[in-house]
């Protein structure tokens, strides 16, 4: 009897504990549900408040707009190309050649017109010249003898001691002797000219670019170019341009040339514009003359910025320009304060801003900043930038 009573009491106590745990779990679950509902309500109310502050019902985004007008801007063309001597002068062997006895210049030296660059050995030619000089003396002696003979015959012909025919023969002998003198002199002068051509000389004043000869080297007419000179030291950039860019240039346009790897730009001028276009590449060449400078090296690569004139165009801050896969564009605000997209073609970029070549007249109200957060068709509240600064206030 006591055993049964104890067993029933234990069962009742276990049931009460299980019921208490169940009630506790239900209470915790209810608290969690209430917390989630409160969080959702708070989040929704916060999002609604933020949306209202940015541009909810009745509140429009305020943007800063500028009217660019039209300003005088420089029309520039950029190009790249190869540096070269404006007038390159290849110098080789003019005469018969021979063994080089001396080379008198190095690359980078300045030379004057006619200056000797190298000498070819001439001992044989010198002896031939001496022989011809002696032949002149012999011919002159014969000519003097013939003249004296003629003079004596002329004095005796009036007395009848010398016939007229004999006088004619002596005159002919004198004339032949004088002709032989002139032949000997011409042969001597020819030899001297040949000897002079053994000196390899600069055809004009300029800068020595390359040297391809050494003492002891045997040179001749087939030896090729021994020296290359830049006439006057003038260099040029052979810039390749598209047809449209080439059409906008004129001879005399100023250009700033910057060699690759250098920071300094050198001022030059367009001196020649190609009369033809390459049918394969559709490019033409503009040649820009540059004064000599040690950093302007022929064969190098350089870029050029060519100023081809001035034009009237709108100028916008860089922050107003947007880009996508289609084109560059800006957002303008129309008369109803609605955002419109306007595709533009941009020109020169400078410290003053970006020039607009086409797409704007200058009278539009252009959104100066934060255009990336707007979309066409959106209504905004425009605010003019009275200072012309490139700033805009985001929507409040």
TrEMBL record:
Domain of life: Bacteria
Residue span, YknX-like C-terminal permuted SH3-like domain: 315-381
SUPFAM superfamilies: HlyD-like secretion proteins (SSF111369)
Any one cellular-component term (Gene Ontology): efflux pump complex
Stretches assigned to the CusB-like beta-barrel domain: 239-308
Transmembrane segments: 25-43
PANTHER family the record matches: HLYD FAMILY OF SECRETION PROTEINS, MULTIDRUG RESISTANCE PROTEIN MDTA
Protein known as: Efflux RND transporter periplasmic adaptor subunit
Provenance organism: Sphingobium fluviale
Highest classification ranks of the organism: Bacteria, Pseudomonadati, Pseudomonadota, Alphaproteobacteria, Sphingomonadales
């Amino acid at each position: 009897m006591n055993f049964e009573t104890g067993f029933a009491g234990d069962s009742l106590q276990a049931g009460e504990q299980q019921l208490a745990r169940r009630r506790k779990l239900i209470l915790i679950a209810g608290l969690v549900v209430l917390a989630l509902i409160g969080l959702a309500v708070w989040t929704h109310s916060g999002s609604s408040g933020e949306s209202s502050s940015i541009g909810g019902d009745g509140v429009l985004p305020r943007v800063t707009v500028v009217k660019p007008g039209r300003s005088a801007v420089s029309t520039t063309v950029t190009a790249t190309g190869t540096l070269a001597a404006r007038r390159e002068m290849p110098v080789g062997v003019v005469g018969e050649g021979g063994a080089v006895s001396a080379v008198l210049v190095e690359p980078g030296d300045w030379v004057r017109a006619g200056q000797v660059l190298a000498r070819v050995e001439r001992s044989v030619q010198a002896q031939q010249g001496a022989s011809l000089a002696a032949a002149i003396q012999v011919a002159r002696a014969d000519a003097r003898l013939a003249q004296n003979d003629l003079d004596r015959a002329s004095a005796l012909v009036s007395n009848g001691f010398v016939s007229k025919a004999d006088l004619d023969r002596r005159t002919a002998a004198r004339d032949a002797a004088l002709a032989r003198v002139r032949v000997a002199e011409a042969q001597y002068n020819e030899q001297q000219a040949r000897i002079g051509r053994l000196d390899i000389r600069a055809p004009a004043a300029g800068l020595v670019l390359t040297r391809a000869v050494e003492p002891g080297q045997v040179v001749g007419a087939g030896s090729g170019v021994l020296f290359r000179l830049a006439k006057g030291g003038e260099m040029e950039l052979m810039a390749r341009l598209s047809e449209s860019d080439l059409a906008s240039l004129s001879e005399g346009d100023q250009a700033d040339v910057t060699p690759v790897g250098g920071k300094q730009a050198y001022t030059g001028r367009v001196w020649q514009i190609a009369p033809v276009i390459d049918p394969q590449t559709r490019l033409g060449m503009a040649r820009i003359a540059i004064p000599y400078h040690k950093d302007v090296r022929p064969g190098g690569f350089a870029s050029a910025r060519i100023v081809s004139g001035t034009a009237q165009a709108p100028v916008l801050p860089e922050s107003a320009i947007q880009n996508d896969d289609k084109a560059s564009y800006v957002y303008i605000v129309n008369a109803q304060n609605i955002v419109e997209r306007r595709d533009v073609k941009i020109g020169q970029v400078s410290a003053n801003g970006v020039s607009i070549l086409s797409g704007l007249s200058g009278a539009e109200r252009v959104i100066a900043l934060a255009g990336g957060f707007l979309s066409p068709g959106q209504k905004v509240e425009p605010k003019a930038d009275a200072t012309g600064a490139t700033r805009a206030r985001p929507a409040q």
